[in-house]
Design brief:
With about 80 residues, the protein is mainly β. It has a domain of about 50 residues: Ubiquitin-like (UB roll) (Roll). Helix content is about 15%, strand content about 50%. The chain is built from 1 helix and 5 strands. The longest helix is centred in the middle third of the chain and has 11 residues. The two termini are about 35 Å apart.
Length: about 80
């Protein structure tokens, strides 16, 4: 049986709870201490939009958020290739 890596299932007594985590893309401008800045898109997997923004701000305090959206793209599948 295939289990989506972004789905977490918890079982307590006779109850099954499923938590879905979503990939959020956060667009904005990253400001560095040396005065350099650049536009960037950072991606976070979180249960809610607010959790993704909180993680972004905690890990990147100099990042000015301009937009956020859900990434609905299909995950990339890495296939093994034989050595020639």
């Amino acid at each position: 049986m295939y289990t989506d890596p972004c789905t977490i299932a918890l079982q307590t007594d006779n109850q099954l709870i499923t938590m879905q985590e979503i990939k959020f893309n956060i667009y904005g401008e990253n400001f560095y201490p040396n005065g350099f800045s650049r536009m960037d898109i950072l991606s976070y997997i979180a249960a809610t939009r607010e959790d993704a923004l909180a993680t972004c701000k905690r890990l990147n305090p100099g990042f000015h958020v301009m937009g956020i959206w859900i990434d609905e793209s299909e995950p990339e599948v890495v296939r093994m290739q034989p050595l020639r």
